[in-house]
Amino acid sequence: MTRAQGTELQEIESRVTELEIKSAFSEDLVEELNLTVYRQQQQIDQLQLELAALRRQVQASQPAAPGSPGDERPPHY
Questions:
Q1: For residues 34 and 29, what is the distance between their CA atoms, to the nearest angstrom?
Q2: What Å distances lie between residue 37 and 14, 44, 47, CA to CA?
Q3: Contact 5, 11 (CB under 8 A)
Q4: H or E stretch including 19?
Q5: CA–CA separation, 35 vs 31, rounded Å?
Q6: From the centroid of its chain, how far is CA 27?
Q7: Quick one: pLDDT at residue 76?
Q8: 19 touches 26 (CB < 8 A)
Q9: Which residues 6+ apart lie within 8 Å of 22 measured at CB?
Q10: Could you give the CA distance from residue 54 to residue 67 in angstroms, rounded to a whole number?
Q11: What region does 2 belong to: left with phi over 0, alpha with psi -120 to 50, or beta?
């Protein structure tokens, strides 16, 4: 092997090592992002349940029929 070939081989090994490092960091980042998306979906699901419960509470607290005595204006208006 000539000196030029040895230098070229070292350069290739260095580039491969850099790519492996970048790949490892990318894999970690993707894993973190997946976990973040999963947690956010759990929060969204919980908020949807809470919103549905609030809607039921609001609907239950509204009068059944429009024009019921509770909707009338007091005489001083």
A1: 9
A2: 35, 10, 15
A3: no
A4: helix 3-61
A5: 6
A6: 18
A7: 79
A8: no
A9: none
A10: 24
A11: beta
Q: Among residues 35, 16, 12, which one has the least CA distance to residue 24? A: 16
This prediction has a pTM of 0.62
The pLDDT tens digits for 1-45 are 788 788 999 999 999 999 999 999 999 999 999 999 999 999 999
- Enter the tokens of residue 76: 């001083």
Candidates 63, 47, 43, 16; CA nearest to 35 is: 43
Amino acid at 68: S
pLDDT 10s digits, 42-74: 999 999 999 999 999 999 998 766 666 566 777
Q: Would you state the pLDDT for residue 77?
A: 64
Residues found in the chain? 77
| Distant-in-sequence, close-in-space partners of 71: CB < 8 Å, separation ≥ 6 | 63
Enumerate residues 6+ apart whose C-beta is below 8 A from 61.
none
